[in-house]
């Protein structure tokens, strides 16, 4: 299987892993619907490749995600792959986290995954095929001090994927979780390209992992894909 002419929706596509993945899949011939809240950055991404269609939206907003799916159907008639990539982190001790911070992060990382997936599922079920990918983190499998909020969101994504996988596998729909280690990106406080991140995974590394996952033959599903930089102990 290749992804030529496949329709792919990617959330959190305005920068980082999402942006790199959108460009790589478009270069491979996919029709990419790129969504994120930052309309300016999305427009710049759209200009880089004719295979990318920018649809600004907030993953935590149900109407926005319904619109993203509708644009994909209006433009290309189907949806083949949904990549839930939108997310961010807050790293504080429990007593320092505000209720608003908790609600906002969970709305993006967890509710956003649910809403985009839910919006696309009727199409995937009707056609009896499709692929839902969730970009989680290796902290969906472990915890660390100061990571209670972020790890809770990733554990929630893990549980969501597990249940979804059991629901849709009999219908011919694949569900894959991507568990990344340290990535040199804007995600970290010191920003992209800092010397301390020199040996981290690159955004392109994760994008290439994503391409591998979604380009397997129809009878093959990669349920879980864990990837780390060599320097990170696992």
TrEMBL record:
Report which superkingdom the organism of origin falls in.
Answer: Bacteria
User: Sorted alphabetically, which SUPFAM superfamilies does this protein's record hold?
Assistant: NAD(P)-binding Rossmann-fold domains
Q: Which SMART domains match?
A: PKS_KR (SM00822)
- Among the Pfam families in the record, one is adh_short
For this UniProt record, the keywords arranged alphabetically read as follows: Oxidoreductase
Q: Tell me the ranges covered by the Ketoreductase domain, including all copies.
A: 6-185
Identify its protein family.
Belongs to the short-chain dehydrogenases/reductases (SDR) family.
Protein's recorded name: NADP-dependent 3-hydroxy acid dehydrogenase YdfG
Query: What's the source species for this entry?
Result: Spirosoma utsteinense
């Amino acid at each position: 299987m290749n992804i030529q002419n496949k329709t792919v929706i990617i959330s959190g596509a305005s920068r980082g892993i999402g942006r790199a993945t959108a460009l790589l899949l478009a270069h491979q011939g996919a029709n990419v619907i790129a969504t994120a809240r930052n309309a300016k950055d999305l427009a710049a991404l759209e200009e880089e490749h004719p295979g990318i269609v920018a649809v600004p939206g907030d993953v935590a907003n149900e109407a926005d995600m319904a619109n993203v799916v509708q644009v994909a159907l209006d433009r290309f008639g189907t949806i083949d792959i949904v990549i839930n990539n939108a997310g961010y982190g807050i790293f504080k001790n429990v007593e320092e986290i505000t209720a608003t911070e908790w609600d906002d992060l969970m709305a993006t990382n967890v509710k956003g995954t649910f809403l985009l997936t839910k919006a696309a599922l009727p199409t995937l079920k009707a056609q009896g095929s499709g692929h839902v990918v969730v970009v989680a983190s290796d902290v969906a499998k472990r915890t660390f001090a100061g990571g209670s909020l972020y790890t809770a969101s990733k554990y929630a994504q893990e549980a969501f994927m597990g249940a979804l996988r059991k629901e849709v596998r009999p219908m011919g729909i694949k569900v894959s979780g991507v568990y990344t280690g340290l990535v040199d990106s804007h995600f970290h406080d010191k920003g992209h390209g800092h010397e301390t991140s020199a040996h981290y995974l690159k955004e392109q590394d994760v994008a290439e992992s994503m391409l591998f996952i979604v380009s397997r033959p129809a009878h093959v599903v990669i349920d879980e894909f864990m990837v780390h930089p060599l320097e990170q102990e696992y």
